Input
Amino acid sequence: MSAPLLRFESVTYRYPGAQAPALSEVSIEVQPGEFCLLAGLSGHGKSTLLRAACGLVPHFHGGHFAGRVTLAGLDTREHGPARLGALAGVLFQDPETQLVMSSVRAELALALENRGHSAAALARGVEEVALALGIDSLLDHTTHDLSGGEKQRVALGAALAGRPGSRRRADRPPAQAQP
Output
């Protein structure tokens, strides 16, 4: 059996100022190619678990973190969200919580920019994901003016734009395209 793609080892996490932990002693392993369903009541840690899996917890949110999370063998405490984003993308239920840029094109480009892709590779990646999801006509629209379904597709595009889990290994920098 191969090493797990995602491993949580006794993870406990409390958001800053929270009385109770959002995660308490969570241990789970997900193998490559395995399908995993995460279900539960609202407010019981599903989104927090995903945030921890991609390094947003604790890097972005702060708070108290104990235990260990590894994604493709990388410890999420030692590697930030930009590095981990080459391995996994996250799509939350509400796209409003994910869209941070003012235009669709900028939103799709953000993950690629964060990983240092060249302008040519960035433009190609944005175009590829927009065409694949049928949102190429939205590239020059503001994210504020999109419908809920359009926002969801843009958020999905942003998660996929960097081609997480592609054959390029996370420990190598992206290839720089020549102009």
Summary: The chain has two domains: 6-84, 95-161. Helices lie at 46-53, 56-59, 81-84, 104-114, 119-133, 148-161.
